[in-house]
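Bit of a strange request maybe. I'm writing a small parser for structure token strings and I need a real example to test against, not something I typed by hand. Could someone generate the tokens for this chain?
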Amino acid sequence: MGGAGLLVLPVAWALSSVLVPGHGLLPAADLQRLVTALERAAPARFGQLPDTTRLVTYLQDQWDGERYLLATTSTHLAAPIIIAWGEPVMARGGFHGVDPAMPLARFVELVGQRQLRFAMVGDLSLVSRRMARNVAGNPVTDWIRAHGRPVDPALWRDARLPYGSVLYDLLPPGE
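Reply from user aminoacidic:
Good idea to test on real output. This should exercise your parser:
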């Protein structure tokens, strides 16, 4: 009886990943999944996909044939949009947002050629923020903040998007 009692928690933990689907990017067993009432009421936790419905709907309404619907800092926000919506999204800083994958000159060129209109800043996960403080992406991030106009969060923001996310419209004023 005592031996069986010792196995209850490890078995429940292991079954949590089998009984309730979790996050595809960072799969892990999680007892929290078994308590569905708490799951529905809780804000986004580490490992949960953000709800991008309001953001993508807003961007699609504003879309004017650009090559990319959005440029994000990392794949944390880009991947769910690409997978769920099939939209072309650029993860300008690679997986964690610390890879200088998009040089500033190329980014500015894409904006100038009207291949990109919207960019997200501040959308890194907590893990990515701690990895390198987005050092690799600073030139592009600084350019976005200097040349873009923040979009009113009431138009696109959802509570499950990363805290501190700011959407910038890179279209020059008056156009």
